[in-house]
Amino acid sequence: MLKIGVLVSGGGTNLQAIIDNINTGNITNSKIEVVISNNPNAFALERAKKAGIDTVCISPKDYSDRSLFNKALIEKIDEYNVDLIVLAGCMVVMPPELIQKYNNKIINIHPALIPSFCGKGFYGLHVHEEALKRGVKITGATVHFVDEGTDTGPIILQKAVEVRQDDTPEILQRRVMEEAEWKIMPKAIDLIANGKVKVEDRKVYISGGTK
User: Fold this and answer.
1) CA-to-CA separations, 62 to 117, 131, 179, in angstroms, rounded
2) CB 197 within 8 A of CB 156
3) How far apart are CA 143 and CA 185, in angstroms?
4) C-beta separation of 113 from 154 below 8 A
5) Burial zone of 198 (CB within 10 Å; 0-12 exposed, 13-18 middle, 19+ buried)
């Protein structure tokens, strides 16, 4: 059984997709042990509570310096003895110590097809604003392992989404979530939970295909 810790900052739509897919059996051999947020007002915490999942708020604002916050975050994650950390709309930069300790055990969803529209400053609605400004015809989402860089870790899954002429950033954001994010994040977790994902030389290999 893959024990998962989910880190969130906002509404928690990707968290809900994970919860729903566990409940329907699309994600197998997995259980969310804890949902941790840096934001006490994150609606994601309400989603977790409704699903009977432990919730914790650890905010950088409650600590005198970042190193103390990092220490508290790592200790809380360790306390739950998780096998996989899922960043589902988490706006906190992961401590290098955490990334090193959980090497290839932290995954993130990015709302674009990496390496397009990614890196420092590319998050949330800004990603879709830039995609529309550039005039791309295809965008999408990427699930990747987290390393010390920004959106530079090994890519696990990607899914393309059509960009339409009348799209606004908000409309495109919603379509990317519905058609890509909410599908490939649960799929990636299921593949990891069932031992089908291997990382070699910064490339991900999936045994048995992805269908």
Assistant:
1) 32, 36, 37
2) yes
3) 6
4) no
5) exposed
Neighbours of 141 (CB within 10 A): 26
Give the burial class of 152: count Cβ atoms within 10 A of its Cβ; 0-12 exposed, 13-18 middle, 19 or more buried: middle
Instruction: Say how far apart CA 74 and CA 81 lie, in whole Å.
Output: 11
Read off the pTM.
Answer: 0.94
Over the chain (211 residues), the average pLDDT of each successive run of 10 is 97 96 97 97 97 96 94 96 96 93 97 95 94 98 96 97 98 98 98 97 85 54
Q: Please name the helix (run of DSSP H) or strand (run of DSSP E) that holds residue 186, with its range, or none.
A: helix 182-193
Residues 61, 65: Cα–Cα separation, whole Å: 9
At residue 210, the 3 state secondary structure works out as: coil
Q: Would you say the C-alpha torsion 74, 76, 81, 82 has a positive or negative sign? A: negative
Helices vs. strands in the chain: H and E counts, helices first: 7, 9
For the four alpha carbons of 60, 147, 181 and 29, in that order, the dihedral sign comes to negative
Helices 43-50 and 13-24: crossing angle, nearest 10°?
20
| pLDDT score recorded for residue 108 | 97
Locate tokens 């987290």: which residue? 146
Catalytic sites, residue numbers: 110
DSSP 11-74: --HHHHHHHHHHHHTSS-SEEEEEEEES-TT-HHHHHHHHTT-EEEE--GGGSSSHHHHHHHHH
Residues in the chain: 211
Q: What is the pLDDT of residue 208?
A: 76
